[in-house]
């Protein structure tokens, strides 16, 4: 394993280096996944372009346009910083169930997104929040929905020398709440068997009536899934246990889990239904908003 380590000073320089070096180079952020691939011989780049000197990718803030989060913010930062607990509590609550504290110190939100693992924990809550991605390349800057980013396991829509630089997230609406529920074999530090994110906006006059909703599934298909049929059932209605039960059934129906050593597809479908039910009840009762 031999490579040249390059540390650019600007995003533009990093993009230019990748454009020049092409497939011989890989971008390096936290490195928790990339370095493992290197050690296992799955990749063999001649150059590693480190993004860690680019302070602009570690920024975060809130303004009238929404909330911005740079892709080099570590999972530990998202877990511990008061900004995320105040403005994006669902992300602050999701980070602690991802890997160990040591890994969370290195791993970045951008890496979790770009690796495009079907079981990535940050994707479902971010999609539920309506997050957009900001991508910079030689052709300029483009912004698009995170929901449109994934093509399949390990595959995304980044082209050529493009770098994902940040997230743009709408400010959560009044009377809204978002939660992410995960089930795994070993609690907290293990890959998800199933992940379910729910975002609900309730009526000003009646907190059991849903004005808007998103239900997003992880680890049960090649890419994160929106449970649009369940969303349509609940949107605009006053929610009771019967509707919650039917929405959970519709949510499980769209999942496409696999059988493997960790769990059967049938068991995963049952988990989807159970977690969707729990998430809907939790938010409609005003918990963990």
Q: Layout of helices and strands, plus pairs?
A:
Layout: E1 4-6, H1 11-21, E2 25-28, H2 34-39, E3 47-50, E4 60-63, E5 66-70, H3 75-80, H4 82-87, H5 89-94, H6 101-106, H7 109-114, H8 123-128, E6 132-137, E7 140-145, E8 150-152, E9 155-156, E10 163-169, E11 176-183, E12 194-202, E13 210-218, E14 225-226, H9 228-234, H10 241-254, H11 265-284
Please explain how this structure is put together.
This protein folds into three domains: 4-50, Uridine Diphospho-n-acetylenolpyruvylglucosamine Reductase, domain 2 (2-Layer Sandwich), CATH 3.30.43.10; 55-169, Uridine Diphospho-n-acetylenolpyruvylglucosamine Reductase, domain 3; 176-284, CO dehydrogenase flavoprotein, C-terminal domain (Enolase-like, domain 1). The chain is 33% helix and 25% strand. It is built from eleven helices and 14 strands. The protein has helices spanning 11-21, 34-39, 75-80, 82-87, 89-94, 101-106, 109-114, 123-128, 228-234, 241-254, 265-284; strands at residues 4-6, 25-28, 47-50, 60-63, 66-70, 132-137, 140-145, 150-152, 155-156, 163-169, 176-183, 194-202, 210-218, 225-226. It has a five-stranded antiparallel sheet. The chain has a four-stranded antiparallel sheet with strand order 11-12-13-14. It has a three-stranded parallel sheet with strand order 1-3-2, with helices on one face. The mean pLDDT is 96.
């Amino acid at each position: 394993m031999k490579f040249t380590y390059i540390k650019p000073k600007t995003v533009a320089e990093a993009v230019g280096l990748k454009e020049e070096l092409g497939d011989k180079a890989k971008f390096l952020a936290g490195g928790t996944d990339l370095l493992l691939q290197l050690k296992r011989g799955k990749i063999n780049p001649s150059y590693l372009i480190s993004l860690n000197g680019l302070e602009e990718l570690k920024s975060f803030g809130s303004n009238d346009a929404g909330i911005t989060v740079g892709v080099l913010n570590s999972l530990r930062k998202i877990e511990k910083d008061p900004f995320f607990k105040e403005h994006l509590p669902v992300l602050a609550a999701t980070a602690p169930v991802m890997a160990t504290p040591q890994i969370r110190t290195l791993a970045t939100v951008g890496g979790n997104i770009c690796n495009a693992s079907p079981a990535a924990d940050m994707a479902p809550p971010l999609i539920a929040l309506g997050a957009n991605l900001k991508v910079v390349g030689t052709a300029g800057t483009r912004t698009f929905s995170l929901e449109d980013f994934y093509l399949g396991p390990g595959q995304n829509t980044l082209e050529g020398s493009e770098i994902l630089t940040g997230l743009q997230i709408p400010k959560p609406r009044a009377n809204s709440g978002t939660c992410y529920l995960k089930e795994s074999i070993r609690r907290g530090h293990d890959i998800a068997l199933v992940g379910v994110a729910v975002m609900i906006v309730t009526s000003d006059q009646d907190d059991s009536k849903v004005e808007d909703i998103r239900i997003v599934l992880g680890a049960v298909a090649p890419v994160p899934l929106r449970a649009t049929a369940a969303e349509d059932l609940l949107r605009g209605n006053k929610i009771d246990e019967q509707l919650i039960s039917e929405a959970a059934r519709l949510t499980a129906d769209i999942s496409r889990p696999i059988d493997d050593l960790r769990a059967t597809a049938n068991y995963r479908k049952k988990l989807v239904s159970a977690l969707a039910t729990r998430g809907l009840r939790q938010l409609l009762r005003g918990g963990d908003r």
